[in-house]
């Protein structure tokens, strides 16, 4: 290769690297820097919406309760709607057995406090999800309660997948035909995340881990099934699905299971990442596998500096969950 051509290629590569390195870091908990992981270039909300205009399903991963995630979701919801008005909002944050409550609210048949109480909405609904639901309501767009019923998920995690056999027909109607479909990569990721790559240890621990994994699969399969149903109920609509990033990053979880059910759907995954150093270009390269588009947000505050207090808080959450019946 001629030296002059080599110099041109190196200059182009250095230009891309410098562009990535010059990305502005998020300045507050509200900020999100949108990045194309292929070339490391920043994008505006409108540029992202234009790129996604013909995509069937846009999956926006979030860190629950992070203002940067929720503000980006709201802005992208609006930008996509401006380009493609036929839109459906799908939400992990509402369980499928509360679809009727959500529909009644959207139709003006109940108030917000009634919705929150009747649908067992998440504690941070008003702060995090109100703007998205209100935008859909004001524009007369459907909103899909996509998650599996919380009680069923909790009890599968405690008792195992056979718990589904004792469910009433009323609850079974909200579950997919194949509630525990999975992929090997997702199982490996789940176990590594839960155990720190140390395996499942004893047989008792292995059984508990297996039950928790089945509960996770129940969520993912239900969301995948509900999204697919929405594409069939509302043809030619774009589905915007909100979910915790573990359910979607690396195109695993809900995304992989949706693809198994409907390989012909075009699906875009937007994933958040936290900057861990000042070299944003390196961080983007190391995380480019997590999504078709990345957005950089500030890390969440540390919950506990005192490790003992942190353990006590976690145990209290487990105690509250285990005190709820599964009969």
UniProtKB/TrEMBL annotation:
Residues 1-21 form the signal peptide. It comes from the Bacteria. Residues 48-257 form the Haem-binding uptake Tiki superfamily ChaN domain. Pfam families: Cofac_haem_bdg. The keyword NADP does not apply. The keyword Ion transport does not apply. Keywords: Signal. This is Haem-binding uptake Tiki superfamily ChaN domain-containing protein. It comes from Marinobacter nitratireducens.
């Amino acid at each position: 290769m001629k030296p002059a051509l080599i110099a041109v290629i190196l200059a182009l590569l250095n230009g891309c690297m410098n562009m990535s390195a010059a990305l502005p870091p998020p300045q507050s908990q509200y900020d999100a820097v949108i990045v194309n992981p292929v070339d490391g270039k920043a994008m505006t909300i409108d540029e992202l919406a234009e790129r996604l205009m013909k995509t069937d399903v846009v999956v926006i991963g979030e860190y629950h309760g992070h203002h940067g995630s929720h503000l980006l979701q709201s802005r992208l919801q609006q930008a996509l709607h401006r380009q493609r008005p036929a839109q459906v909002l799908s939400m992990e944050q509402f369980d499928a057995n509360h679809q009727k409550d959500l529909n009644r609210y959207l139709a003006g048949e109940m108030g917000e406090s009634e919705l929150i109480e009747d649908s067992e909405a998440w504690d941070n609904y008003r702060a995090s999800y109100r703007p998205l639901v209100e935008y859909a309501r004001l524009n007369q767009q459907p909103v899909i309660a996509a998650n599996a019923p919380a009680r069923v998920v909790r009890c599968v995690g405690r008792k195992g997948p056979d718990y589904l056999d004792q469910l009433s027909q009323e609850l079974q109607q909200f579950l997919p035909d194949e509630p525990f479909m999975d992929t090997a990569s997702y199982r490996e990721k789940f176990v590594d995340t839960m155990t720190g790559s140390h395996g499942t240890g004893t047989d008792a621990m292995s059984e508990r881990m297996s039950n928790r994994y089945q509960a996770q699969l129940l969520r993912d399969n239900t969301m995948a099934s509900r999204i697919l149903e929405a594409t069939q109920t509302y043809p030619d609509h774009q589905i915007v699905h909100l979910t915790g990033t573990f359910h979607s990053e690396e195109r695993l979880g809900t995304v992989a299971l949706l693809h198994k059910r409907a390989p012909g759907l075009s699906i875009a995954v937007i994933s958040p990442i936290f900057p861990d150093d000042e070299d944003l270009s390196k961080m983007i390269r190391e995380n480019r596998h997590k999504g078709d588009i990345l957005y950089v947000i500030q890390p969440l505050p540390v919950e506990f500096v005192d490790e003992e207090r942190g353990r006590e808080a976690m145990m209290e959450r487990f105690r509250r969950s285990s005190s709820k019946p599964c009969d």
